[in-house]
Request: fold
Amino acid sequence: MAFTSSMGTGTATTILGGLVGTAAAMPISGAELTGVSGVSLAGGTISVSGNLGLNINLLSQVQKFPRTGTLSSLQATFANTAAISLGGTTVTPTATLWKGSLSGGDIVLSPTTLTCAGTPGFKAVVTVGTILTCSLTGQSLTVNAGDYGLIVISETASGGINLVNTTVLGATVAISE
Reply:
């Protein structure tokens, strides 16, 4: 099993302390001109229906795995699409496969071990087109036919004094057995 996905632009944020703020979501397979931005990761799960009712934009990104298999790798490329000045702060984007199932009429997803962070991170003045990559191999993540999947792009910030940031990114992600 192999999937490739790309997103033209999506917005990820960090909050006070450099922690993950909101994230961008993209499908496990296919291409989206614009990913779904503003996805909350609070509580450690993503709910497609949740307390606010159906998020049709998020529903359009969630896809079913077609068969049971074991995924072992994730590679990602992140491209900055809007110039930013970070001073001494490093912003590190991360791609993570989230998976879940239908539960009580809602699709609820949780993060998996298939995750990697773009290195060396965005630093100082970041121009449009700056690219970071990451690669993770050697994992053993079982997905069942009918499980739902979603790629989530988030970020953290460290160092410097500007730990609250907004980054507009393009991304390409591949996951495989």
Summary: The mean pLDDT is 93. The CA atoms of residues 13 and 142 lie 30 Å apart.
